[in-house]
Fold this sequence. Notes:
The structure holds 2 protein chains of 2 kinds. By secondary structure, chain A is α+β, with helices and mostly antiparallel strands. Chain A has helices at 3-9, 18-31, 39-45, 51-71, 94-107, 124-131, 166-175, 241-249, 256-263, 323-332, and strands at residues 86-92, 108-114, 119-121, 151-155, 158-164, 191-196, 199-204, 224-229, 233-236, 271-277, 281-288, 291-298, 304-310, 313-319. The longest helix of chain A has 21 residues, at 51-71. Mean pLDDT of chain A is 74; it is low at 40-54, 68-81 and 209-219. Chain B has helices at 3-10, 18-39, 42-59, 67-89, 93-100, 106-125, 128-137, 143-150, 154-174.
Amino acid sequence: MSDDIDELLGVREIEVDTERALARLRARVERDRIRPVTRAAARRDGPLVSLWVKGLAAAASVALIATLLTVSGVAETILTIFEPKQVVAVPITTTDIQRAVAGLGSYGTLEFSTPPKPYDVPDVATAAKDSGIVVLVPGQLPSGVSIATARYGVMPRTTATFTFSAEKTRASASRLGRTPPPMPANIDGAKLFITGGPAVVQYFDDGTAPKGDTGDPFATLPKLVVAQGKGPIVRSDGVTVEQLQQYLLAQPGVTPQLAAQIRAIKDPSSTLPIPIPVDMATSKNVTVQGAPGVFVGDSTGLGSAVIWQKDGIVFGVAGTLTESQILAVANSLH
Amino acid sequence: MGAVEAVRVAGAAPAIPPALEALFRREYPRVVAIARRIVRDADEAEDVAQDVFVSFYRRHPADAGYASAWLHAAAVHTALNTIRSRQRRGRRELAHAREHDVAVDPARHAERTETRAEVRAALARLDERSASLLALRYSGLSYDEIAAALGLRRSSIGTFLSRAEAAFRREVTRS
């Protein structure tokens, strides 16, 4: 600790009357009839998590859905490794997303062998060292975005195993009053090994904006996010992929339109589908750093993102910026 | 069904569960100390601490493993929000401070009041993480406790902290 700061931040020692304070809390709880949380609600709320961790969790769940949808489209051999070499937009509806999320747990069990544990690091060098990724940084930033506000996070490699279960599928379908197509015997018990990351996330804020005072310390969103990492890789332990595709795309939750979109992917073993919620966002194909990418704009025009794949790494640049600003940042990464 | 659940279902008057009382006795002095580093006023720091515990009680089970870390982080955020909103409400900083301070020597009193206003203003201008790091560290929390409260790796605390100290010095000099 530094003496000068200790002196500035120092306060006179005072005795705190904890019992009096506890009586005050009791009185307030009774007066305002403040109710404690239920266990279930507490689990939803959870401990404090920094904004980018929440964002990463959201991104990871989207990637997982995309991966499972894609796996159903892997049409080559039994032990095909899914490894993204390019990205493609797959238009989906909110209903598709809800069904896909519900579907994860209803077809089997997802178990993390290495759960996602993202953390903040002080600088690019530490991010590169911890992740083992050659971290690209923006060569230019749009006006209003300040390099001085940069924050960095690392998500170590995450691995999970998904095990299909005929019994679980039957049970969840009957709860919904549905009759799913019978699960082929060789899919029951089959495993998918899913690997994601490592990844590095860089955050930049608007250097001129006033400090937030909204009551929620995490309410202020970063102006610009640059993410890069090893894309999801999936290995299967032996189920025939044609059967998997046939089975999953024939599920009551999958619309014919979505099934057709996925079947249309030319090289499904190396194409990462980017789910585009059709009612919330628009997308188009772009070229970034010489590689094909997908540009996504939300329909309000407030935010946009671009995603591409190059040299084994999936990149994403997103922010509350215009299309030309986002693309300029993406092309300036070096 | 636990005791707390039973009370909810019965609709009886809420009572603080013993686990929360134990947590309160253990952590209240520290939550006040953290808030005091920022708001620079004993009464106001106790108000902040009350809000922090009410907020915790509403949303988290008292025996949660992250309870202490949550309380420490919430003390910092709530205290920072208090001084930031006060700053926006107007520049009555010195007047307010004079009312609340107890001092014998008028010259020393004025000097100390001014320093206090400067420290609050400097903390309010710092980014959230730097201000949090300083408040927690100079309230006596260990690196492990700071890492838990702010979701940082222990190995990074030293670097983040020395940056926060440098930024704080700049802000104090500026004001």
